[in-house]
Design brief:
The protein is of the alpha/beta class. It is built from eleven helices and ten strands. The chain is elongated.
Length: 411
C-alpha cells in the first residue's frame, strides 16, 4: 500500500493515546445527526486541479459528527490507480461512552483534526486520474458494512477523468449526458450506489495547464456524474465550495489535459429578432445562466469575458437598429419574492445594461426592471437546484414597445 496505510494507523494510534477516546467542525454535515454513519472520502490531490479544501464545513462537520457518533471512515486517494489509504471504525468500548459529553466531544475533535491533517498531506502517486474507478473503490469500502444509519461518499476533485471507461479526453463534454450514461449502462460500468449518498465538492475546479471549463461544460460534467450516481440507485448532491489556493512544493504525477470543445457564442442575429413588422424583439430573448452566469447571490459576472462575448452581438444589433428601445428584466429562482430577490434581479438587469452601454449602446434606449420570481416565464415548483431552476435565473431582453414589455412596465 506504499506505506500509506501504516501511516494512517500510526496517526490514529497517536490520537487515541493522546486523547483517550474518540475527532472537528460544526455547522452543516451530510452525516445523519445523532446516528451512526459510514463515510468514505474520495480525494483527488492531483496535477491540473486546484487545492482541495479540507477546511470546508462539509469536510470538517461530517468527519466530526461521524467520529462523535462512533461511525466509520475510509479514505480513497483518486489518481491513475486509486487506492484506499485508510479504513477504521470509531466505535469505542461501552465503558468509555459513559464519559462526560464535553470529554467525548473533545476526543472526537482531536481525532477528526488528526484525520483531516492526514488527508491534507496526501498526494497522488500515479499518473492520470480515474474518478469512476475511485468511486467504485469508495462504494466497495461501504457496501458490505451493516448497522449504519447512513452511508455517504464525499468526493473532492475536478471530476475530469483522463483514463478509464469515462475518459473525458474522448470529447465526452460534446456529447449529450444521457448518451454517455446510456453507454456506461450498456457496458455495465455504473457502480451500485444503492443506499449511498454521493456529495461532490470542487467539481470542475481545474488548474493550469488544464483549460478552464465554461459554465455549460461544468453543468454537463455535473449532469454526467449526477446521472451515474442516480442510475446506480444513489442520491447525488452537488456542493459548490471554492478551492483552497495552492501553495505547495509537492510534485504531482502527470495528468493529461482534456481538450475542451469550442463554445459558440449565442447568435443574436437579425433573423432571431425580426418578426416581420415594425416591432422587433416581439419574442423575449432569455439570457439564462448558460448564456450569462453570475456569481451566486451577486450581480457580478462569473466570467466577465464570456458574458461580454455573449452580449456583444446584442450590442452590435442595437447599434444597427437605433429605433429600438429595450427592456431588460431580471428574474430569480424560487417561488417567493422578497426585498432581497427583487433587488438582486434589478442589479443583474442593471449589470447587463452597463455592459451594453460600455459596448456603445445609448443608455437612454435601455430600461431595466427587477421582477424576482414574478415574471411571465417563471416555472413554479422548480426550487433552487436543477436545470429548470437554472432557467428561472435570467435576464430577459424585450422590445420595450412590445405588449409583454408594456404589461411588465405598467405593473
Amino acid at each position: 500500500m506504499r506505506k500509506r496505510f501504516a501511516a494512517i494507523l500510526t496517526i490514529i494510534c497517536l490520537a487515541v493515546s493522546a486523547v483517550g477516546l474518540t475527532g472537528c467542525g460544526s455547522q452543516t454535515s451530510v452525516a445523519e445527526e445523532g446516528g451512526m454513519n459510514a463515510v468514505c472520502y474520495a480525494i483527488a490531490p492531483t496535477a491540473n486541479s486546484q487545492g482541495l479544501n479540507m477546511s470546508s464545513s462539509l469536510v470538517q462537520d461530517t468527519i466530526y459528527d461521524t467520529i462523535l457518533n462512533y461511525g466509520y471512515v475510509s479514505v480513497v486517494v483518486v489518481d491513475g490507480e486509486s487506492e484506499m489509504v485508510a479504513a477504521d471504525s470509531y466505535d469505542i468500548d461501552a465503558q468509555y461512552k459513559k464519559a462526560s459529553k464535553d470529554k467525548l466531544k473533545t476526543d472526537a475533535r482531536a481525532k477528526a483534526t488528526n484525520l483531516i491533517t492526514y488527508m491534507e498531506g496526501q498526494v497522488a502517486n500515479d499518473a492520470q486520474v480515474d474518478y469512476l474507478e475511485g468511486l467504485r473503490m469508495a462504494v466497495r469500502s461501504l457496501s458490505s458494512l451493516e448497522g449504519y444509519d447512513s452511508k455517504t461518499i464525499v468526493v473532492i476533485g475536478t471530476g475530469l477523468s483522463t483514463q478509464g471507461t469515462l475518459n473525458f479526453q474522448n470529447n465526452l463534454l460534446s456529447v449529450e449526458p444521457e448518451a454517455v450514461l446510456d453507454q456506461l449502462e450498456e457496458k455495465d460500468e455504473i457502480p451500485d450506489f444503492t443506499g449511498i449518498t454521493v456529495v461532490w465538492q470542487q467539481m470542475g475546479d481545474v488548474a493550469l495547464p488544464q483549460q478552464d471549463l465554461s459554465q455549460t461544460q461544468r453543468k454537463r460534467l455535473q449532469e454526467i456524474w449526477g446521472g451515474i450516481v442516480e442510475r446506480g440507485g444513489g442520491t447525488f448532491v452537488y456542493n459548490d465550495i471554492m478551492a483552497n489556493p495552492v501553495d505547495t512544493e509537492a510534485t504531482y504525477p502527470a495528468v493529461d489535459t482534456v481538450e475542451l470543445p469550442a463554445e459558440t457564442p449565442v447568435d443574436f442575429n437579425a433573423a432571431m429578432f425580426d418578426t416581420g413588422d415594425e416591432r422587433l424583439l416581439e419574442e423575449p430573448v432569455m439570457l439564462t445562466e448558460e448564456q450569462v452566469s453570475f456569481v451566486p447571490d451577486k450581480a457580478t459576472y462569473l466570467d466577465e469575458d464570456e458574458a461580454v462575448a455573449t452580449i456583444q452581438p446584442i450590442a452590435d444589433y442595437l447599434l444597427e437598429h437605433e429605433q429600438i428601445t429595450v427592456l431588460l428584466a431580471g428574474t430569480t429562482a424560487g417561488d417567493e419574492d422578497s426585498d432581497y430577490t427583487m433587488t438582486l434581479s434589478q442589479k443583474r438587469a442593471d449589470a447587463v445594461r452597463s455592459t451594453l452601454v460600455q459596448l456603445g449602446v445609448d443608455e437612454s434606449r435601455i430600461v431595466t426592471m427587477g421582477l424576482g420570481s414574478s415574471d411571465p416565464w417563471h416555472v413554479y415548483g422548480a426550487g433552487y437546484e436543477g436545470s429548470i431552476a437554472s432557467g428561472n435565473r435570467k435576464v430577459v431582453l424585450l422590445d420595450a414597445s412590445s405588449d409583454t414589455a408594456k404589461e411588465i412596465l405598467s405593473e
